[in-house]
UniProtKB/TrEMBL annotation:
Superkingdom, taxonomy of origin: Eukaryota
Alphabetic keyword roster: Signal
First and last residue of the signal peptide: 1-18
Name this protein carries in UniProt: Uncharacterized protein
Length: 171
């Protein structure tokens, strides 16, 4: 869990220090690493036979699976943004940066998907009371990592938008 949170923090800090276009490829690579780390934790959790004996756990795992599929949608949104930035040859003009940022942020994949992630974790956490304490700890460690990532992704979108607006007003 700490690796996922640490990777998320590095990812967000790297993006905060980056210009909108120059380090976007690096940010996408970091996101892919983070997504795979979350997937690895989810696989380990799903293979735990003690947890699979409980209906609540099955529900929780299906919610986490939905969360992971949302990460796939978020990655697709990153890929779309990357294509927009790669389509500007040479140094992009302020107008190109603004258009790319607006197209990227208007997709609304981020807002709606992050909102759904937060709903998933709220619902799932309510179901945990029926699990044995040891199982609760295992499930919560993964859930907290995923939930933390959702919050960091929200922060990332805000940073990206701020940086894009800053680049267009300063150029």
């Amino acid at each position: 869990m700490s690796k996922v949170i640490y990777s998320t923090a590095i990812f967000v800090l790297a993006l905060a220090e980056a210009s909108v276009t120059s380090d976007f490829d690096q940010a996408l690579a970091e996101f892919r690493k983070l997504k795979e780390a979350g997937a690895s934790q989810l696989r380990v959790l799903m293979e735990n036979t003690d947890l699979r004996k409980c209906n609540t756990t099955d529900n929780f795992l299906s919610l986490l699976n939905e969360g992971y599929s949302i990460y796939g949608k978020l990655q697709a949104s990153f890929d779309a943004g990357q294509q927009i930035f790669n389509s500007t040859h040479g140094e992009p003009t302020p107008q190109q940066v603004k258009e790319a940022a607006i197209a990227f942020l208007r997709s609304n994949l981020f807002g709606s998907n992050i909102q759904r992630l937060n709903q998933i974790f709220s619902t799932a956490n309510k179901d945990l009371a029926s699990l044995p304490r040891a199982a609760q700890d295992k499930v919560l460690s993964v859930a907290n990592a995923f939930s933390g990532t959702a919050k960091k992704l929200n922060t990332l979108v805000t940073l990206f938008k701020t940086e894009a607006e800053s680049d267009t007003t300063n150029m």
